[in-house]
Amino acid sequence: MFKAVLEDVGLIKESFNAIAEIVDEGIFNIKKDGISLICPDRAVIAVVDFLILPTAFESYTCDKELEIGLNILKILQFIKKSKPEDKLTLAVDENEDRFELTLDGSTTRKFAMPIISVAKQEMQDISRFNFENSIELDPSVLKEGLENCALISDGIAIMISKESLVLKAEGDSSFTQIKIEADNPQLYSLTCKEDTVARYSIEYLTKMLKAGKLTDKVKLEFNKDYPVHLEYMIKDKVKLGFILAPRIEE
User: Fold this and answer.
1) Which pLDDT band, with edges at 50, 70 and 90, does 168 fall under?
2) Superfamily covering domain 2-114
3) Separation between Cα atoms, residue 129 and residue 16, nearest integer Å
């Protein structure tokens, strides 16, 4: 049996806002220690790494491990119907092979959807990545940098030193950049082994920032010509991470 009641519906709604931009379906693992999803997009350019802990829920019951395929877009469509006072109940009906969502507030709305077959894709172990540079900053700063860079290019250069972070894009005869000094209050931490420039897709990073309302802090870890790890975390509640392949200059 699995049943969980969530008071803060925004934890899932804001997470799925970004997840649904990358993958439309996936295999969720439901265990005593939480609900998780690790899934690459169809182009295998990005990977979603999501975990919501039992401590995020008002109540959480899971008497055996479950592995279920779900349509993420349909879940998000229903959860977007939630109102501020609603609680969200998640449950699995194993007899009918269905996943059930219930919003309880001034009214009770229930949505049942079939558990689907989702093909597993071979992936490298995310924990194997070793990052030498990391920053924690306000998502609004990264959003502004991406929006500015999108006016010039479809790729962004992330440039880090011990003194600052620079987000830059260049075109044939133009460029734009935003520079954030290490002592800027919107730059919460900066770790840099050596001056580094790494390049990534603006489109994908913009999609990942759809979860910007989840928390006021986003962490980026990267190296030159190496994937970037973008992560949102609320302690004892939820972790939402993404891995994005780099753009490597010839």
Assistant:
1) very high
2) DNA Polymerase III, subunit A, domain 2 (3.10.150.10)
3) 24
